TrEMBL record:
GO MF term (any one): ATP binding
Protein name: Phosphonate ABC transporter ATP-binding protein
Keyword Protease: no
SUPFAM superfamilies to which the protein is assigned, alphabetical: P-loop containing nucleoside triphosphate hydrolases (SSF52540)
InterPro entries reported in the protein's UniProt record: AAA+_ATPase, ABC_transporter-like_ATP-bd, ABC_transporter-like_CS, P-loop_NTPase
Keyword Coiled coil carried by entry: no
Length: 269
C-alpha cells in the first residue's frame, strides 16, 4: 500500500503538484489521468523518489519514504518495478539479457538461478522462445512484454508504468492492459499507471485519479467515472464523441427510457 499525504512540489515559483493525497492499495491498478502538463509525471516521479516533494509524505507500507535516509530509500526502490514509456530496453542486449539485468544488479544468484527466473517471467508474459532475440527484431507489443518481464523479475511489491500503451495499436494495448491487471492481482502488486488511454481507464481502472492543473480534481473507479458530474472530468473523458454517445445511451438505459437490447458494458469495455 502507498499512502500519499498532502504532497506539494514546485519548480521555482510554479507549484506543479498542489496538496495531493491518495491511497493506493495492493492488487489494484491505480490510474493517473489528466491532460498534458497536469502534473502526472511529476507526481509519479515524486512517488518513486526521483523528485523530493517540498511538503507532504509518501508512505510505503506504513513507512515514511520521504524522510528515509539513502539506505532506507534503496530498500524501498528494490521493491519497485518500472515499465518505461517506449519500454527502454537496452538495444545491445538480447531479451534474456535485458530481463536478467536487474538480477545482475541486485542479487548474488548463480547463473542457473538467474536463467531459471528469466525463463519463468518470460513464460508468464507469454514470450517463450524469444530469449535470444534483440529488441530491434521484435514488435512493439513484444518489447512491452519484455519491459514488463524485466519490471517483475525481482518480484516487486509496487509497479509503476508510464504510458504503457504508447505506440501500440488498440488490440495490442488491450493485451498489455490485461497482462498488467492479471499480474497486479496475481502477485498483489500495488500498480500505478500514468495513461492517456481511455480504453485502459474503462478496462483496468480499479482506482482513477484525475489530475487538473496539479491538484486531484476527482477520484473514483471505472464504474463511477462515466456517471461523474464533475464538469472538468467530463470535458476530459468525453472529448471523444463515441464515449459521449455511449454515456448518454447508458444513462437512458439505466433510467429505463430505452430498451436494453445491446450490452453497453461490452461496448464500453
Ligand atoms: N524538471 C522540471 N523543471 C521545471 N518544470 C517542470 C519540470 N518537470 C515538469 N515541469 C513542469 O511541471 C508541469 C507538469 O508536467 P508533467 O510532465 O508532470 O505533466 P504531465 O501531466 O505528465 O504531461 P504529459 O501528459 O504531457 O506527459 C509542466 O508545466 C512542466 O513544464
Amino acid at each position: 500500500m502507498i499512502e500519499v499525504n498532502n504532497i506539494v512540489k514546485g519548480f521555482g515559483d510554479k507549484i506543479v503538484i498542489n496538496d495531493v493525497s491518495a491511497v493506493m492499495e495492493p492488487g489494484k491498478c491505480n490510474l493517473i489521468i489528466g491532460s498534458s502538463g497536469s502534473g502526472k509525471t511529476v507526481f509519479m516521479k515524486c512517488l518513486v523518489g526521483l523528485f523530493t516533494p517540498d511538503r507532504g509524505q509518501i508512505v510505503y507500507q506504513g513507512e515514511d519514504f520521504t524522510s528515509m535516509d539513502d539506505n532506507g530509500k534503496k530498500e524501498i526502490r528494490k521493491q519497485i518495478g518500472m515499465l518505461f514509456q517506449g519500454s527502454a530496453l537496452f538495444d545491445s542486449l538480447n531479451v534474456e539479457q535485458n530481463i536478467q539485468f536487474p538480477l545482475d544488479m541486485f542479487t548474488d544468484w548463480s547463473t542457473a538461478e538467474k536463467r531459471k527466473r528469466v525463463n519463468e517471467v518470460l513464460a508468464r508474459v507469454n514470450l517463450k522462445d524469444a530469449n535470444k532475440k534483440f529488441p530491434a527484431e521484435i514488435s512493439g507489443g513484444m518489447k512491452k512484454r519484455v519491459g514488463i518481464a524485466r519490471a517483475i523479475v525481482l518480484n516487486p511489491k509496487y509497479l509503476f508504468c508510464d504510458e504503457p500503451n504508447s505506440g501500440l495499436d488498440p488490440q495490442t494495448s488491450l493485451v498489455i492492459d490485461k497482462l498488467i491487471k492479471e499480474l497486479t492481482e496475481e502477485y498483489q502488486i500495488t500498480t500505478v499507471i500514468n495513461t492517456h488511454d481511455m480504453n485502459s481507464v474503462m478496462e483496468i481502472g480499479d482506482k482513477i485519479i484525475y489530475m487538473y492543473q496539479g491538484h486531484k480534481e476527482w477520484e473514483g473507479n471505472n464504474k463511477e467515472i462515466i456517471f461523474s458530474k464533475n464538469q472538468r472530468l467530463n470535458d476530459f473523458i468525453f472529448a471523444s464523441e463515441f464515449l459521449r454517445d455511449a454515456k448518454d445511451m447508458r444513462m437512458l438505459e439505466q433510467a429505463g427510457k430505452i430498451e436494453n437490447n445491446r450490452n453497453m458494458d461490452d461496448l464500453l469495455k
